[in-house]
Amino acid sequence: MTTQTTSQVQARRGDDRRSDVCIVGNGAIAKTTALGLSQAGHSVTLLMPPARAAADGASSSGGEKPWDVRVYALNHTAHQLLSSLKVWGALDMGRVAPVDAMDVQGDGEKGGQLGFDAFGAHAGTLAWIVEDSNLNGALDAALRFAQNVQVVHGRALRLTCGQDGAAVQLEEGGRIDAQLVIGADGRDSWVRGQCDIGIDYRSYHQRAIVANFSCEKPHHNVAHQWFTCKEGIVALLPLPGNKVSLVWSAPETLADTIMNESLGELAIRLGEYADDKLGLLKPLQPEAVKALPLALVRPHAITAPHVALVGDAAHAVHPLAGHGMNLGFGDVVDLLKVIGARDAHHGIGDERVLARYARARKEDVLLMQLATDGLERLFSANLEPLRVARNLGLNLLDKLPLVKRRLIAHAMGR
């Protein structure tokens, strides 16, 4: 196939396309997968929803671009992958904050405490806080110069799989034929549904409330997290300067109340937790807040004939550990590794290749699912014996440096 840089087209009737891989999705995991496979020499069609007019992210007066309320705590696996794809260097590093330490608090007046730091983990930093818009902007820039990638804007209608490959039929007409179709289309994955892959679903009856604040005291690149019982899990993540990003996994009733209040009132609520460590919080301007429903989604499989799932399509976990996006990047790393190591006579959509990918992801994903779901169950139980036990557990773990080091190394992707 002739090498060419990325083209973007609108799907039209009669436009049939063929490539090695068709990726369905428009988020960071879909774009990263497209870049990784194209750089490995495969032709890629990236199917995205119909293009919409972009909102103006900068202020009309030419001031600082508003801070995105969606942020990710990217670990070393994500950092290494994005660096290898020449994406990390394209980020606006002035809007990236390192996490040098974590401070975890239990519930109640005598709540347990657990701390992690980069020095104890023998690392330069634990993670990096990156805005969704910053990450996607860097990926979009890299995609514009990617070889053998075609971005098609259209709506998927039907997925069919045969002996030699798969085909995605589009609502606008035309289809995309590929040896491998990758579902990177989120928690409610259309690709997964087309493959009749069942799921285990558990609603947490919580919503993640996300917003940004300035803080009176310097945060020293420390991420703070409070495990409460009745009010859910509160996390304040460092942003550059004296700014923090809130991720509050709040029970639905409390979430409704918070979303009906002003951000100033939300800042007062947060003062109960943050005043001692961060001082007075003030909403960043222009004010912005979102609430995202939380659920555990465990598909019964992450592959089907000529199909692989990555990212939230393959697993959706509670955000208390901040590793949902990192699991997705881990999917991309293992998929690229398995495809790159396959025998020459096996196509990229071969069932044996995809079976190796499923095996490679099984342990890492299962451990994260068990850890996040187990912690959510443990800290949401309003029983005094459990409250005492979990606080004692945090304090005990804090005094076991070898165990702490192994835990943090796993979380860092090392």
Topology readout:
Blueprint: E1 7-10, E2 17-24, H1 28-39, E3 44-48, E4 71-74, H2 76-84, E5 97-99, E6 101-105, E7 113-117, E8 127-131, H3 132-144, E9 149-153, E10 156-161, E11 166-170, E12 175-183, H4 190-194, E13 199-215, E14 222-227, E15 233-239, E16 243-251, H5 252-259, H6 263-278, E17 281-283, E18 289-299, E19 303-304, E20 307-309, H7 324-340, H8 351-380, H9 384-398, H10 401-412
Parallel strand pairs: 1-9, 2-3, 2-12, 3-9, 6-14, 12-20
Antiparallel strand pairs: 4-8, 5-8, 6-7, 10-11, 11-12, 13-16, 13-17, 13-18, 14-15, 15-16, 19-20
Helix pairs in contact: 1-3, 1-7, 7-8
Number of domains: 2
**Helix run count:** 10
- Poorly predicted regions: 56-61
What is the share of helical residues? 25-40%
Number of strands: 20
Radius of gyration over all CA atoms, rounded: 22 Å
Order of helices and strands: EEHEEHEEEEHEEEEHEEEEHHEEEEHHHH
Enter the CATH topology name of the largest domain: FAD/NAD(P)-binding domain
Secondary structural class: alpha/beta
**What is the overall pLDDT average?**
88
- For the record, give the distance between the C-alpha atoms at the N and C termini, rounded to a whole number: 37 Å
CATH homology-level superfamily of the largest domain: FAD/NAD(P)-binding domain
User: What's the CATH first level of the largest domain?
Assistant: Alpha Beta
Strand content: 25-35%
CATH architecture of the largest domain: 3-Layer(bba) Sandwich
**Could you describe the largest sheet, including whether it forms a barrel?**
9 strands, mixed
Specify the overall morphology: globular
